[in-house]
User: What shape does this take?
Amino acid sequence: MLLRSFSCSPTLLRAVVLFSTCLVMSACGVFQVGLEPAAPEATLTLPPTVPVVFPTFTPTPIPPADFDPLPAGKKIRLTSIHMLDKTTGWGIGQIEGSDTDFVLLTRDGGRTWQNRTPRAVLQSLPPQGLALTAFFGPQGRAWALWSDREAGGFPDSGVVVWRTADFGQTWQTGAPLSLEGVPAEYFVPVHFGFLDATYGWLMARLGAGMSHDYVAAFVTEDGGLTWRRVLDPVQHLDLMVCQKTGLAFVSAREGWLTGDCPGLLPGLFLYATRDGGQTWQAVSLPVPAGLPADWFGGEKAGCGVTGLVYTGGDGLALSVRCLANDGGKVWGWLYTAGPGKELQARVLPQPYGGFQFLNAREGWFIGAASSDPAAPAVIYRTTDGGLSWRPVLATAWQGVPNFVDAETGWVIARTGEKSALVYTTNGGLLWEEISPVTGMEK
Assistant: This one.
């Protein structure tokens, strides 16, 4: 769904954390911040992870898929942001006057953005524009996949993945993804990632009905030039139940598949592969301390694995949420997962929200007590891998944090249907709104 941009002028977001609350973006009357207490801290530790080393990757020389510079000063509606350092980062968004998602690059901390969308993608656009799914890696690497918003996600040219190794100056396409022999009502990419410069994965929704979410998953071992289908409704019909919430690999052979269908089926939808996706086995999570042994069985609570959270290197964490059947209390936990690690539960201060981890120990969580997109939230920080969460700031907006160090971070802050790009340089105590626009090439 496209987001409407604000019509008000840029406003600084300021929050003074002295047991008071001040209004943010007062010209719009949208965001409010202040400090509130957090839930009790958990008492578990997170084992360290091993950093992933990205090998050197040079694309095969081909004629460059040049992009067209955009006129400066056009408003941008950002829907996703991935900053690499304090000044340089990637974004996904719509340019004023267009419904197509662009790959964007900033060199000034998010204030101005340059187009990095391959010209070939924009040569023949459908009436409703193209949707973009992308994964942004280090050292100027990125992978992007455009799909038709209206024609079930299938573009006329076929489903292909683009890749770049030079911040979008040149792009290269891989072989089309094959759905031969697999029925599909539509093709909507939902989970896309790379373990390093060569090994990656992609999952797309193909259809739904009767508590089923039909998907196909692909892996690549050559940086996206070719893709091998490892999961589909024909080969793995038993895995099509429940809405899929995540797919990620922590090595070329070990991956995780998660789903959320609380109350509809007993137990949790959690599967792991040890052979690169050819076979999948159900995985049981230990029940959090203090709860009945059959807590995940479905009779006492409706529980689901709501997503995968990266903790840096080869580390991975699972977020789990349960709704108790006797009173409606909502619980949230974070489980660590990775090669050779035990799965351990950490109580979350709020059951809903978005995570980011810089490494195995340091991370942020913007949590809310309700699934209402207009509900207030609290920004939390952990320095012990989720063992404890310290409240930094209470806000009237939600979002996914994107920090590049302990002090500097960005959030596409959302409340209801409204959004704004905000950033901090002091760990989240003070936030300033940025009004992103297109800028001249640098």
In short: Residues 1-65 have pLDDT under 50 and may be disordered. The first strand starts at residue 21 and ends at 24. The CA atoms of residues 274 and 366 lie 33 Å apart. The chain is about 0% helix and 40% strand.
